[in-house]
Amino acid sequence: MADSQDVDPGMYEKLNLDRPHPARVYDYFLGGKDNFEVDRQAAEHLLKAFPGFRTAALSNRMWMHRAAKYAAEQGITQFLDIGTGIPTEPNLHEVVQEIVPSAHVVYADNDPIVLAHSRALLVSKPEGRTAYLEADVTDPQGILGADEVKELIDFSKPVALSIVGVFHYLPDHLQPYDLVRQLLEPLASGSLLIFSHCTPDFAPELWERAMVVYKADGGEAQVRSKEEVTRFFDGTELVEPGVVSPFRWFPDEETEQYVERGEFTDIMCSLWVGVGRKP
């Protein structure tokens, strides 16, 4: 696992190692090694407060693969993935290029650790293309205007905008609904919003405790109800089955096995997910 003592002082400051980072905490939940003591400590505190975090992370990842596959099967060949996280195989481009080898995928994240591992995101099939930019979801115009996006994304054609497991780190004061609206605005008719968000709906007391400990560790977060998550899809038409728990969105055989074993439940996953199509 990564150790903050191995980081040079300049990079230490850039990595913000005095507080946990969502991408590195998520990496820890998925069993990765690209995280630091501050992230592991925050993750373990979260697990004590709410034991379902590893299950939620896994179900979220598996759902993202199904949603990305769905988008590719609908004929979408351009993907903009914001809040990519630390590369974990299969990555989004590997999923969609199995269906559409010529697909273009642009990844964006604000953690320098993700940038350090971005080579894994750039190994595209010869027919397709991928790019990575270090950017923050709180600056939609910076993302949309980036050279990487301009080069790989044609806004006159449908785009799949993937924002998976990101917005529960954005409290209301950061105007999250407006951020999604700005990102959707330039996208062509037929574009898809692929979106997931943690919810306290199934275990409010556990989640209240989890938010307290995460904030005490220096993190920022706000979980939201189904009604609040559904608002993110304003301006789109929800694809059936709508906003649901991840394991209920077109489950594949592997997902159904987790459900049968009692590992994927509403409480243990505690996520709302959905796909909306821009009219």
Provide a descriptive summary of the structure in words.
Mean pLDDT is 92; it is low at 2-12. The protein has a single domain, classed as Rossmann fold. Strand 1, helix 5 and strand 2 form a beta-alpha-beta unit. The termini are far apart. It has helices at 9-15, 22-29, 37-49, 53-73, 92-97, 112-116, 140-144, 147-152, 176-184, 204-216, 226-230, 253-260, 266-269, and strands spanning 78-82, 104-109, 129-134, 160-164, 192-198, 237-238, 271-277. A seven-stranded mixed beta sheet has the order 3-2-1-4-5-7-6. With 279 residues, the chain is α/β, with parallel strands linked by helices. Helix 2 crosses helix 3 (37-49) and helix 3 runs antiparallel to helix 10.
CATH homologous superfamily annotation: Vaccinia Virus protein VP39
The CATH architecture assignment turns out to be 3-Layer(aba) Sandwich
The computed structural class is: alpha/beta
Please tell me what the overall shape is.
Answer: globular
CATH topology: Rossmann fold
Oligomeric state of shown chains: single chain
Largest sheet: 7 strands, mixed
Broad CATH class: Alpha Beta
Spatial order of the strands forming the largest sheet:
3-2-1-4-5-7-6
Cα distance spanning the termini: 45 Å
- Taken together, the total number of domains comes to 1
What is the strand content?
A: 5-15%
Rounded average pLDDT: 92
Element-level helix/strand string: HHHHEHEHEHHEHEHHEHHE
Radius of gyration: 18 Å
Query: Unreliable segments (pLDDT under 50, ≥5 consecutive)?
Result: 2-12
Number of helices in the DSSP assignment: 13
Into which percent range does the helicity of residues fall? 25-40%
What is the β-strand count? 7
